[in-house]
Amino acid sequence: MRHQNKINQLGRTSSHRSAMLSNMASSLIEHKRITTTLAKAKALRGYVEPLITKSKEDTTHSRRMVFRKLQNKDAVSELFREVAPKIADRPGGYTRIIKIGFRQGDAAEMCMIELVDFNSVYVTDKKAADAKKTRRSRRGTAAPKKEAAPAQEAKVSKEANQVVDEAPKAESIDEADAGTDTETKKDSNE
């Protein structure tokens, strides 16, 4: 009986399971995204997230503790160099599991597990967005406005030229549409 043994054994011995999770964690850290079964992904999430948390503190002791689990120098160095700075302000939840359907051979539920901060679709650069935002107020020092005014006037004049250039094109399209409208009216009257 397995009362209150909540670990998913994944049909493997203890040594095989630990080796498999170590290899999968190394692959996840190196490639940032791997495809596996849902049961393995859930087991991997519980295995790799404490390692990522330990990587936030870059000390010799934490490197040795992570290396003890991963057994891969490249993965450990990439974890501490690339992954740790990106997740420094995140309090947890470093991985995302996305279900992708069922495997054809045995109908096992497949999923993709990925590191959250490395997906370009879901991640927006907060620093870049903050840099683009400028606060404009009516108050301010007179000197910066005078310096900025010629640049703004140049931008406005360029935009005005573009609008003027585009306006005749829009009118010519309207005239062409108007001609077809009159033709359709004539056809409907006949």
Question: Short description, anyone?
Answer:
The protein is mainly α and 190 residues long. 61% of the residues lie in helices and 11% in strands.
What does this entry look like structurally?
By secondary structure, the protein is mainly α. It has two domains: 14-124, 50s Ribosomal Protein L17, Chain: A (Alpha-Beta Complex); 140-190. 61% of the residues lie in helices and 11% in strands. It contains six helices and three strands, in the order αβαααββαα. A three-stranded antiparallel β-sheet has the order 1-3-2. Strand 2 and strand 3 (109-115) form a beta hairpin. Helix 1 (14-31) packs across helix 2 and helix 3 (60-70) crosses helix 4. 14% of the residues are buried. The model has no long low-confidence stretch (mean pLDDT 81).
Largest sheet: 3 strands, antiparallel
Structural class computed from helices and strand pairing: mainly alpha
- Under CATH, the topology of the largest domain can be stated as 50s Ribosomal Protein L17, Chain: A
Treating each run of at least 4 consecutive H or I residues as one helix, how many helices?
6
The overall number of domains is: 2
Instruction: Report strand order across the widest sheet.
Output: 1-3-2
- Helix content estimate: 55-70%
The arrangement of helices and strands along the chain is HEHHHEEHH
Radius of gyration: 30 Å
End-to-end distance: 90 Å
Secondary structure layout plus pairing:
Layout: H1 14-31, E1 33-37, H2 38-55, H3 60-70, H4 73-86, E2 95-102, E3 109-115, H5 126-132, H6 142-189
Antiparallel strand pairs: 1-3, 2-3
